[in-house]
Design goal:
By secondary structure, the protein is of the alpha+beta class. 37% of the residues lie in helices and 20% in strands. It is built from 28 helices and 34 strands. α18 packs across α19 and α23 packs antiparallel against α24. The protein is globular, with a radius of gyration of 35 Å. The mean pLDDT is 90. The chain binds one RNA strand through α7, β11, α10, β15 and α11.
RNA sequence: GCCGGGGUGGCGAAACUGGCAGACGCACGGGACUUAAAAUCCCGAGUCGCGCAAGCGACGUGUGGGUUCGAUUCCCACCCCCGGCACCA
């Protein structure tokens, strides 16, 4: 018998897990698999408790599933490429690789001290050539399929990070990493054609039934499919159409008879020609330039005054056959749709405001159900559905029907067609930085863009010593890297010097864990067929539209190159809440981080794990409190004292089967088995880890209450003699409770549980022992206490045999003295007996 | 504006299918042990009123209505907080 000394037992078990490679697994088709994964970590240096909460959540799941007989894959690794390593190199003159691996070593130690049950043999770091070689391999496959392509375009540029950002990486107009406002640059860039999968990515969302609604909504918004039509408005010479046309995209073709003018984005290709052909090209161009110079962020977020000017040109509305003016407007986006819109001021709020501002006509073509309106009288656009008016032969149709009919009509005349437009753009993956995967392409003057042959992969990142952080891609300055013969014609050629976005690395790492050392393929298809998909994936919600949409895309690319057969990589997703301190997210700059190592030193990893899991459900944010952690530590001391002190007294206890338990012992056994049931369901599927822990706490309280009644003193000091327990039945019930308790707690507090389990005389560990088995008979109540209400107000409690008939329950309730008192002089209207749960007597108040 | 989540004691929270609101814990108060303190063990506690007391009563889950024998839970309207999207035609 001894005190609870977490530092000793935690070290002991962590050493043992490492020595026995306790969490290593292999493919075993005879057992059900469970792939449990937490989003891997960027090796920033130190993990704080906000980061490690996520690893704890996954570990609870992994450890519980292991005990329940699953073959559990629970790996970990490092998202090891990225800018901070390079920035640190610039600042401290250390090589990014040194910085990265030093950080990995430190953080790995932190995770091991937390007792997270990772299969460390499978650890990967994405900056290793053995890993990024397969980024290059897949990029080549995508290039071959036309899914990776290069084009010049306006891209998002972060001045501070000196690199391009994908659309997904622009948050509120700023860089997702550093917040610097994003500017536009015109660059030659590599793109991955995620839009080829846009429909599939959207349509499969409803199959993700175990994802949070919030994430599904965010992805749906991000993909932003809108169904509409393209319609061509011929450019007019006077009032006659020419053969040239401006094409618009609209979701409201039903309003086309009310299209009073057409608006062009300042970036629209025809703008320059209109300028050149205008009476005063210089003034025209100046106005366009002013629009284009508007702050990009403000333009995208709509925080600008809507302005425009007439080009002096007209197009013919192809349905009304009347000329309408063409304006250039600052709020029309060049990169969406066709960069031109038909403006229907009566039925679009933006167009309405624009028309009123510049005194343009407003023609009503949709009447709301039962209402009428005139363009002159409108104070707002009517954007709802209704019935068409003033729309030629289409008048009288519903908006819904009109959309179909007008689209068909346009198609029949070759002036338009149905089309689908996405907000989602192709993924720009070129980065003008060093610490990333080299893009495996060689540019030859004769052959064009030629992929590096698979046999020559990986294209290794050359070691460079100078990091300036200035200007273009660092690799462009490494002559030996850049100047290579063309793989096809052997003439001198140049290597691509940009590196890949690090989100490429994280888009498929979960498959690599299944087969992390494969040297001939990214992974063996049969191995991934066994382990995949990830059954339980947890991480921060900040990846809802970055990592999680890219991964769904990559998983499909792997499917289409024949390496996997599933569509969706993650079956169940949990987005964990952040840990706050003083109301703010922990960050080094705010100086409010809690270092897990400090807490482990003071209270042990088990107490830290228990506290973080107990304080709130996993999805919720939590506020860190030291007193809460102390409470968890106190509780574990209480568990330790009960278990360790009683072990000698219960060591020889008989098995519970067939024993004649008395009332107290039965009550304890009931508590034990009810707790097993509750904890089991609370962890999986409910993931209410906080209530699972409170159920265990209640069992501990019940155990102490039992000891109190029997005069057993588990809380006695170290030097007290072990208590004697007279009845073998009592010892049996106690041992059963302790053994259940230790195992129910073991996903949360693995070190403490293993230690107590060993001290209880088992030498094969809690995993081998398995999850405690619920015994419904032992959990059953003989008698139950149910509330008795009068008119919904609690008036008395009734103790009655479990399973009593409704009639017997009713009579017993009515006979209670407290009920009799309340019923005096009242008339019972009816009595509701909710089987075994409640009695409610409905009365009418007596008059007078 | 649209979408999603939420609002419950001093605090973190619980209540699974409409059935005892506040489990469990933190902080707090009392008792036992101790020369004393810490630790530990036991007990108490939503608010208000009456009572010396055991107890009794009223009120109580953001606000207002509704459905129901019964509502934290379902419906309608509204207020507030958090997250996401947003001039996307």
């Amino acid at each position: 018998m001894s005190d609870y000394r977490p530092q000793e037992i935690e070290k002991k078990w962590q050493d043992r897990w490492r020595e026995t490679r306790a969490f290593e697994v292999k493919v075993d088709p005879s057992r059900p698999k469970f792939y449990c994964l937490e989003m891997f970590a960027y090796p920033s240096g130190h993990a704080h408790v906000g980061h490690v909460r996520n690893y704890m959540i996954g570990d609870i799941m992994a450890r519980m599933k292991r005990m329940r007989g699953f073959n559990v894959l629970h790996p970990f690794g490092w998202d090891a490429f990225g800018l901070p390593a390079e920035n640190a190199a610039i600042k401290n003159h250390t090589h990014p690789e040194t910085w990265t691996f030093d950080n990995i070593a430190h953080m790995k130690g932190q995770l091991q001290r937390l007792g997270i049950s990772y299969a460390w043999e499978r650890e990967i770091a994405t900056c290793q050539p053995e890993y990024y070689r397969w980024n290059q391999w897949l990029f080549t496959r995508m290039f071959e399929k036309g899914l990776a392509y290069r084009r010049r375009s306006n891209v998002n540029w972060c001045e501070s990070c000196a690199t391009v950002l994908a659309n997904e990486q622009v948050v509120d107009g700023g860089c997702w990493r550093c917040g610097t406002p994003v500017v536009t640059r015109d660059l030659e860039q590599w793109f991955l054609r995620i839009t080829a999968y846009a429909d599939e990515l959207l349509d499969a969302l409803p199959t993700l039934t175990d994802w949070p609604e919030k994430v599904l909504t965010m992805q749906r918004n991000w993909i932003g499919r809108s169904v509409g039509a393209r319609v061509r408005f011929p450019i007019a010479e006077g009032v006659t159409p020419t053969t040239e046309a401006i094409e618009v995209f609209t979701t409201r073709i039903d309003t086309i008879y009310g299209a009073n003018f057409v608006l062009l984005a300042p970036e629209h290709p025809i703008v320059e020609r209109f300028a050149a052909e205008s009476p005063d090209p210089a003034a025209f161009r100046a106005k366009v330039a002013a629009f284009r110079a508007l702050d990009r962020t403000a333009r995208l977020t709509g925080e600008i005054e809507k302005e425009g000017f007439a080009t002096g040109r007209y197009v013919i509305n192809p349905f009304t056959h009347t000329p309408v003016p063409v304006w250039i407007a600052n709020f029309v986006l060049g990169e969406y749709g066709t960069g031109a819109v038909m403006a229907v001021p009566a039925h679009d709020q933006r167009d309405f405001e624009f028309a009123r501002k510049y005194d343009l006509p407003v023609t009503v073509v949709i009447q709301p159900e039962g209402g009428t309106s005139e363009g002159d009288e409108l104070t707002d656009a009517y954007t709802g559905d209704g019935v068409l008016v003033g729309s030629g032969s289409f008048s009288g149709l519903s908006t819904d029907e009109a959309r179909t009919r007008l689209t068909a009509e346009a198609a029949a005349h070759g002036i338009g067609e149905a089309t689908v437009q996405y907000r989602l753009k192709d993924w720009g993956v070129s980065r003008q930085r060093y610490w990333g995967t080299p893009i495996p392409i060689i540019q030859c003057e004769v052959c064009g863009l030629v992929p590096v042959p698979d046999a020559d992969l990986p294209v290794r990142l050359p070691t460079i010593s100078e990091f300036t952080g200035r200007g273009d891609s660092p690799l462009a300055h490494v002559a030996e890297f850049v100047n290579v013969p063309c793989p096809r014609c052997q003439r001198p050629a140049r290597r691509e010097t940009d590196t890949m976005d690090t989100f490429v690395d994280s888009s498929w790492y979960y498959y690599r864990y299944c087969d992390p050392t494969n040297e001939s393929l990214p992974f063996d298809p049969a191995t991934v067929a066994y382990w995949g998909p990830v059954d339980f994936y947890s991480g921060g919600v900040e990846h809802a539209i970055l990592h999680l949409i890219y991964s769904r895309f990559f998983s499909r690319v792997f499917r289409d190159v024949g390496l996997v057969t599933i569509d969706e990589p993650f079956t169940r997703l949990l987005t964990q809440g952040m840990v706050l301190r003083h109301g703010a997210v922990m960050s080094k700059s705010k100086g409010n981080v809690v270092d897990p190592d400090d807490m482990i030193t003071r209270f042990g990893a088990d107490a830290l794990r228990l506290y973080v899991m107990f304080v709130a459900p996993p999805e919720k944010e939590v506020e860190w409190t030291d007193t809460g952690l102390e409470g968890a530590y106190r509780f574990l001391g209480r568990v330790w004292r009960a278990a360790d002190h009683l072990i000698p007294a219960v060591a020889d206890a008989p098995a519970p089967d067939g024993l004649a338990f008395d009332a107290d012992e039965k009550r304890l056994r009931r508590a034990t088995h009810r707790t097993i049931d509750r904890v089991t369901r609370d962890i999986d599927p409910r993931m209410h880890l906080n209530t699972a822990i409170s159920a265990v706490m209640e069992l501990v309280n019940d155990l102490y209450a039992f000891c109190d009644i029997r005069g057993i003193k588990p809380g006695a000091r170290d030097d007290a003699p072990p208590p004697a327990i007279a009845r073998p039945e009592a010892a049996a019930a106690l041992r059963e409770a302790i053994e259940a308790l230790v195992r129910l707690l073991s996903p949360f507090t693995p070190h403490l549980s293993e230690e107590l389990w060993e001290r209880l005389g088992h030498d094969d560990g809690v995993v081998a022992a398995g999850w405690p088995v619920f015994d419904a008979a032992a959990a059953a109540e003989d008698e139950i206490e149910i509330p008795v209400q009068i008119n919904g107000k609690l008036r008395a409690r009734l103790t009655i045999a479990a399973g009593a008939s409704d009639e017997a329950t009713r009579e017993a309730a009515l006979a209670l003295p407290a009920i009799q008192t309340h019923l005096a002089g009242a008339e019972v209207v009816k009595t509701i007996v909710a089987g075994g749960r409640l009695v409610n007597i409905v009365v009418k108040a007596s008059k007078g």
